[in-house]
Design a protein that fits this description.
The complex is a heterodimer.
Chain A (H helix, E strand, L loop, with lengths): L2 H14 L2 H30 L9 H19 L7 H6 L3 H5 L4 H30 L7 H29 L9 H15 L10 H7 L4 H4 L1 H7 L5 H32 L6
Helix pairs in contact in A: 1-6, 2-3, 3-6, 3-7, 3-11, 6-7, 7-11, 7-12
Chain B lengths: L1 E14 L3 H10 L2 E15 L4 E5 L6 H9 L6 E6 L9 H4 L2 E5 L11 H11 L4 H15 L14 H13 L5 E5 L7 H18 L2 E5 L3 H7 L2 E6 L2 E7 L10 E8 L3 E7 L3 H11 L2 E7 L3 H11 L5
Parallel strand pairs in B: 3-7, 3-8, 5-6, 6-7
Antiparallel strand pairs in B: 1-2, 1-4, 8-9, 10-11, 10-12
The chains are: A mainly alpha, B alpha/beta.
C-alpha cells in the first residue's frame, strides 16, 4: 500500500470510529434541515399567496436548503480549525517529524472527509427526489447530480487552499478564530448558502460573482437542480481553477514564512 | 554524529500590563519582549552515545531538542546531525530521527495503536519483515501486546507512553530525542520505560539526548550530562565526575528539637561548624555525608559553576 492510500484508509477509519457522530451528522442534521426548510418556506409561500418565487416552488426550495448545508460540509472537509487547533495544542509537531509533506497529508485527510459528504449528498438528493418530488429516474437528472457533486468536490479542493492559507497564519498569530468565523460567514452569505442568489438584486449579484464563493456554493447547487448549462459548468471550473492558483500560491508563501516563525507552542 | 556550533535562539513575545487598562492599551499598542532561549551553545555527540540534558524549567532544554529535531529554526549558529541541517527537514534525516515527548501524543487517539503503526509503516517505508520484527520486539519488551488493538484514548497514561515509544522507534531511528519520557508516570511505569530505553540503547546504539526532571532517569541512563542554565551550558562531562565538582564539601544533615536541615560545609571547617551547631541547638541527630548528585546539580543550576 502506498503512503497516500494508507492516509486515506486511516482517515476513513477515523470517520467511522464514532458511529453516533456519523449518524447524527448524516440523518439527524438532514432531518432537521428538511423540517425547518419545509415549515419555513411553506408559510412564506402561503403568506405571499404564491406557488413560486424567483423560479422556486416549495419542493425545489426545500431541495435547495437540503443541498446547501451538505454542500458546505463538502467544502469544509475536515472539521473547522483542522490545522490551527493542532498548531495551538501542539499535535502539529508530529507532522514536521514525519518524512512526508504536511500540505499533502492534510489535503488527503481533508478530501477524504469531503468525499464522505459527497456520498451523503448523493443519497439525500436521490431520496428526496424519489419520496418528496415523486420524480421518475431520468438520465439528465442523474447527470446533473453527478456534475454538481463533481463541482462541489472541485470546490473542496479550492476551499481547502483558502482555508489552509487562513489557518496556517496560526503558525505565528495568537488566534485566527475570528478570521475563520468570518470566512465561514462569507462563504455561506456570498455563496448563496443563506438565500438563493436569485433573491439578491442584480448589482449585488454582480459584486458577489467577483468573489469565489458563488462558484463554490450556488453554481453546484443549481447544477444539481438542473438550472445550469454545460457552458456555465465549464466557466465555473475555470474560475475555480484561477482562484485555486491564487490560494495555492498564498499557501506556499504563508507556509514558508510560518515554518521559520513557528515556536512549537503547546509543547 | 551531532555537531552543534555556536547555536542561539531568541523568541519574541508580547507583554501586557495587568488589568482592564492594560488590556485596552494592548489593543492599540503591544510591547515586545525578546527572550534568549539559547546563547551560543556548542555540543558534540557521537554515535551510540546517550546524553542527559538537565536544567530548570525555561533553561532552554526543549528549545535545543526542538531545533535538533527540525521543528524550530535557530536564530544563529549551525547544527549538523548525520550530515543534515535539521530545520531543512530533508526526508533522509526525518527517516532516521525520532522525537518522543512525554506530554504529547504522536499516535492517533481515535484509533487502536496497530492502525497508527500501519500508517507509520507506510510513511517511513518500513519493509514487512522489519515491521513485524520491530512490533514483536517493542511490544514484548514494553509488555503492551494486549493493548495494541484498543483505542489509544482508552489506555492508561503509562500504556499510552509505551505506545508512543513504540510508534517513535518502529523505524529504528539512529538519532533519538527524548523529552521528559517518564513525566506523569507512576514509579513502576517509570522503571519499565527506563529499562526499555536501556535495553534499546544497548541493542541499536542510537545517538540519544534525554531531558528529564527525574534524576533517576539521568542516573540510570546517561553516563554523560550537560547542564544548561539560562540558555548556556554550565557543565558538559561525565556524570561520575560531577561529584568532584563539590569534592571539597560535605553535607551536614541536622535534626534538632525544632527542625531538620541540611548545610554544605567545606571539609576543613567541618569540626568548627559541627561544634557551633551543637552549642547553638539541642541536636537530636547529626549525619555527615558526601553531597548527592541531585544536590550538586541543584547547586549548579542555582549558582552556576561558582562553587566548584
Amino acid at each position: 500500500m502506498k503512503w497516500w492510500t494508507s492516509i486515506i484508509s486511516q482517515e476513513i477509519k477515523k470517520i467511522l470510529s464514532y458511529r453516533s457522530d456519523f449518524w447524527v451528522t448524516f440523518v439527524g442534521q438532514t432531518a432537521i434541515q428538511l423540517v425547518i426548510a419545509r415549515a419555513l418556506w411553506s408559510s412564506v409561500f402561503e403568506s405571499q399567496g404564491v406557488v413560486s418565487m424567483q423560479g422556486f416552488n416549495l419542493e425545489t426550495m426545500t431541495l435547495y436548503y437540503l443541498i446547501a448545508p451538505v454542500g458546505t460540509r463538502i467544502l469544509l472537509g475536515e472539521s473547522f480549525g483542522f490545522i490551527s487547533r493542532e498548531i495551538y495544542d501542539g499535535t502539529f509537531t508530529k507532522y514536521l517529524l514525519y518524512p512526508l509533506s504536511f500540505v499533502q497529508y492534510k489535503t488527503l485527510t481533508y478530501l477524504t472527509n469531503s468525499l464522505f459528504y459527497v456520498l451523503q449528498l448523493f443519497i439525500i438528493v436521490m431520496l428526496y427526489r424519489m419520496f418528496f418530488m415523486k420524480a421518475a429516474f431520468e438520465p439528465t437528472m442523474f447527470l446533473n447530480l453527478m456534475a454538481g457533486m463533481a463541482l462541489f468536490f472541485i470546490g473542496a479542493v479550492v476551499y481547502l487552499s483558502l482555508g489552509m492559507a487562513v489557518e496556517l497564519i496560526s503558525l505565528w498569530a495568537d488566534n485566527v478564530w475570528s478570521l475563520m468565523v468570518m470566512l465561514r460567514f462569507f462563504t455561506a452569505f456570498l455563496g448563496g448558502g443563506f438565500i438563493p442568489m436569485s433573491f439578491y438584486p442584480e448589482w449585488a449579484r454582480r459584486i458577489m460573482y467577483l468573489t469565489p464563493f458563488p462558484y463554490l456554493v450556488s453554481t453546484p447547487i443549481r447544477t444539481i437542480m438542473g438550472d445550469v448549462s454545460g457552458a456555465e459548468v465549464m466557466k465555473c471550473i475555470l474560475v475555480m481553477g484561477v482562484w485555486w492558483v491564487i490560494f495555492r500560491v498564498s499557501v506556499h508563501f504563508i507556509w514558508r514564512s510560518g515554518q521559520k516563525r513557528y515556536t512549537g507552542v503547546g509543547q | 554524529m551531532i555537531q552543534v556550533t555556536n547555536l542561539s535562539k531568541s523568541f519574541s513575545s508580547h507583554v501586557k500590563e495587568p488589568g482592564l487598562k492594560g488590556s485596552l492599551k494592548a489593543l492599540v499598542k503591544r510591547e515586545k519582549k525578546i527572550k534568549e532561549a539559547l546563547k551560543s551553545v556548542t555540543l558534540k555527540i557521537d554515535q551510540g552515545e546517550i546524553v542527559g540534558l538537565i536544567g530548570a524549567n525555561g533553561a532552554g532544554k526543549t528549545t535545543l531538542v526542538k531545533i535538533l529535531a527540525g521543528i524550530v529554526h535557530p536564530t544563529a549558529g549551525d547544527v549538523s546531525v548525520l550530515g543534515y541541517r535539521p530545520w531543512e527537514r530533508d526526508n533522509g534525516y526525518r527517516k532516521q530521527m525520532s522525537l518522543i515527548m512525554g506530554q504529547k501524543n504522536q499516535v492517533w487517539w481515535d484509533l487502536p495503536a496497530l492502525d497508527s503503526f500501519l500508517l507509520l509503516k507506510e510513511i517511513y517505508q518500513i519493509d514487512d519483515a522489519t515491521y513485524k520484527q520491530s512490533i514483536e520486539f517493542l511490544a514484548d519488551t514494553l509488555m503492551v501486546k494486549d493493548q495494541l488493538k484498543t483505542q489509544v484514548r482508552k489506555l492508561s497514561l503509562g500504556e499510552r507512553m509505551k505506545i508512543e515509544l513504540m510508534a517513535a522507534l518502529l523505524h529504528r531511528p539512529k538519532v533519538i530525542f527524548l523529552d521528559e519520557p517518564t513525566i506523569g508516570l507512576d514509579i513502576s511505569a517509570q522503571k519499565a520505560v527506563r529499562k526499555f530505553l536501556r535495553d534499546y540503547q544497548k541493542e541499536w546504539q542510537p545517538m540519544t539526548i534525554l531531558t528529564s526532571h527525574y534524576m533517576e532517569d539521568i542516573k540510570e541512563l546517561c553516563p554523560r550530562v550537560v547542564i544548561i542554565k539560562e540558555g548556556e551550558f554550565v557543565y558538559d562531562g561525565a556524570l561520575s565526575d560531577i561529584q568532584k565538582l563539590l569534592g571539597d564539601e560535605k553535607v551536614l544533615s541536622v535534626t534538632t528539637a525544632e527542625k531538620t536541615f541540611k548545610v554544605n560545609v567545606p571539609r576543613l571547617e567541618l569540626a568548627r561548624k559541627t561544634q557551633e551547631i551543637f552549642e547553638k541547638d539541642e541536636v537530636l541527630d547529626l549525619n555527615i555525608m558526601d553531597p548527592s548528585v541531585e544536590d550538586i546539580i541543584e547547586s549548579i543550576m542555582r549558582h552556576g559553576m561558582k562553587r566548584s
